[in-house]
Amino acid sequence: MLKDLKVKNHKGEVKIGELKIGSNELVVMAGPCAVESREQILKAAEEVKKNGGQILRGGAFKPRTSPYSFQGLGEEGLKLLAEAREKKGLKIITEVIDSEAIELVDNYADILQIGSRNMQNYGLLKKLGKVDTPVMLKRGYAATIKEWLLSAEYIISHGNPDVILCERGIRTFETATRNTLDLNAIALVKELTNLPVIIDPSHGTGKRSLVNPLAKAGISVGADGIIVEMHPNPAEALCDGEQSLTISDFALLIDDLEKVAKAVNKSLII
Description:
The protein has a single domain, classed as TIM Barrel. Helix content is 36%, strand content 16%. The protein contains nine helices and eleven strands. Strands 3-4-5-6-7-8-9-10 form an eight-stranded parallel barrel, surrounded by five helices. A two-stranded antiparallel sheet has the order 1-2.
């Protein structure tokens, strides 16, 4: 299946400063779906930091299914993320939605996220191969594992070796959840490659109550960390409130993950 792919020989860690993704220490990325205000993102950053997270997530540019939905604050959102990083000492990850935005987002972000819709945007992937910033590549919601890894190779083959994979659920016949989180994919990719793998149980399920158990399941099958949506007030979130953890939910998740980490001979720095 993957005998012609180079990713199977790729290095096993991606470094962002002193932080290593793909090591024995699990990485926690958390924050709101979208940056909505200064108060909101600073509060989220405070809670991520307090509970042991290392990376703050938040969308400044939001590719939404409906053109009438909140599209993000743009560069103002990036500036707020940078302020949160400065005040709380977190790294930041945010999405790049098109080639024209690469330079702008790269000026602010520590990790560039490529969302499900852009997994096979090969022009964008080639250009990301020219930057020095790590890229987290989310699996397309209808992509096979081979297609996902070939997309990673577009980035790597064009010069950027720092690629992190993210399993975020795929579209199946099931309608009870937003997507079907593919735990098979995590175990298989870890077996066939050395690429770090992050799990996204927020998008993988679409249900706040399922984020905790699926995060634990993902770590148990080999994921190197999690990325979850957490909002200071999910009921008022401008997007994805139904799958965003509350502050107390997030604290409980970290406590639970510490136990799972020990069971799989990994550590969670909190």
